[in-house]
Structures are given as C-alpha cells and as structure tokens.
Amino acid sequence: MGVVLIGAQKWSDTNLDVSTFQDGIPIAEISSSEQWAEYYNASTPGWCHYNFDASNSTLYGKLYNWYAVSSSARIAPSTFRIPTDADFTTLVTYLGGQTSAGYKMKNTQYWLTLSRRNSNGSNQSGFKGNPGGYLKSTTAEMWDLGWSSNYWTATTASAAQVISKRLYWSNNDCVSINAPTDMGLSVRLLCTGSCTVGDYNPVGDF
After folding, report:
1. Cα(63)–Cα(28) distance, integer angstroms
2. What pLDDT, on a 0 to 100 scale, did the predictor assign at position 199?
3. What is the spatial distance between Cα 151 and Cα 103, in angstroms, rounded to a whole number?
4. Which of 17, 84, 122, 139 would suit a FRET pair with 6, their CA atoms being 20 to 30 Å apart?
C-alpha cells in the first residue's frame, strides 16, 4: 500500500487487502455466497475475494462486509482510519467537484468499456482507483469487476444503509450511494497521524 497526498489529505493509493484487525486478530475469510449470508446474519466481520478467487485481490484488494469495517477492533492500521462521507467530500471538492473528480481518481488502465469511448481515468490525483466491483447483498452476487469502484465510508445513512462512494466506467463522476449493510465493498484509508507519502506497509504497524 502506498500513501498519496491529495490537497491536504493523505490517502491510501490501493484498496485495502488486510486479513487481520489492528490488534492482529484474524478477520474471517468468506468463501461462498451461503457463508456471506451466514456471517451477515450473525453480525460477524468478514471479507472475500471478488468471485471468491484470490487472484482478484492482487489488483483490486478484498471486499469487506460492514461488520469488518465498523468493528471497534479497527480494520485500519495505526495512524489510519476509514474515511467519512465528509472526508470524501473534501477530496471530491478539491478535485473539481462530483462530475469531474472521478476521472482524476480512476486509474489509467484496467477499466473496461462498452463503446469506443475510453473509460480509463487520468489518475491526475494519484488515487489509482481500480474497478474492483462489489458484492451485492446477502445473495453474494458479484457485479461490475472492470466497470466500477465502490468504497465504504464510516458514515451511516440509516440503520440498514451506509453512504458509499462510486466511480463508474461510463462517466467522470464520484457519486454517493446509500449501500445496504449486507453488501461487500472495497476500502480506502485516510491517514490522520504521522505517515510518509510513498510506500507504506500497514502490517508492520499491527
């Protein structure tokens, strides 16, 4: 994982790919759609690879359930935290607003397209948003690998929904979507302490 300075904020430049909480306690790997529903119904933290295929995590990181993201055990390493809706708003505003920030956040490769238009971004921000897709509800259907990036925030919209952020292949937007808590999304981190821009190894802070 790297750290990039965007405006006055320091962001991780890859999707989170850890399998333990900050104190070293393992977060359970979920290996089937049935197990995803079981963990959600039991309010148990967990993560999975897209399509339950470990090769997808190399580029896209892991998909986490809401219980892993919101756990008091803290999925973020020391000096980092899960960004709030307000944190993303600061980022998007700095990058020119909702209708243009996405282009500057999307990576320059890996994005697919259904037309002749280029769906890659400029990565002008250094955010390196890769299209890791998402897991849709307790049926654990996998959607949008290559087509969208979807990130949890720490901000709830209701008892059953959390504000998430999406980058999409067909536009330059970074939009807010109220995501049901039974989904599986990617995670980015915000540095709120002392961390150096460049390469960073979160495991070393556990």
Report:
1. 12
2. 59
3. 16
4. 17
Half-sphere exposure of 26 (CA within 13 A, CB side): 3
Higher pLDDT, 52 or 206: 52
The predicted model scores a pTM of 0.93
As a residue count, the chain comes to 206
Q: How is residue 184 written in tokens? A: 């599986």
CA angle 169, 102, 197 (to 5 degrees): 125
Torsion 173-116-149-162 (CA) sign:
positive
Place of tokens 């955010």: 127
Please say if the pLDDT value at position 100 is more than 80.
yes
Q: Which two tokens stand for residue 188?
A: 């980015």
Burial 167-205 (b: 16+ CB within 10 A, else e): bbbeebbbebeebbbbbbbbbbbbbeeebeeeebebeee
CA dist 115 and 49 (Å) reads: 28
Q: Which residue has the tokens 């920030």?
A: 101
Contact 133, 144 (CB under 8 A): yes
Distance in angstroms (rounded) separating the CA atoms of residues 86 and 78: 21
Q: What Rg, from alpha-carbon coordinates, does the chain have?
A: 16
Predicted confidence (pLDDT) at residue 107 exceeds the cutoff of 60: yes
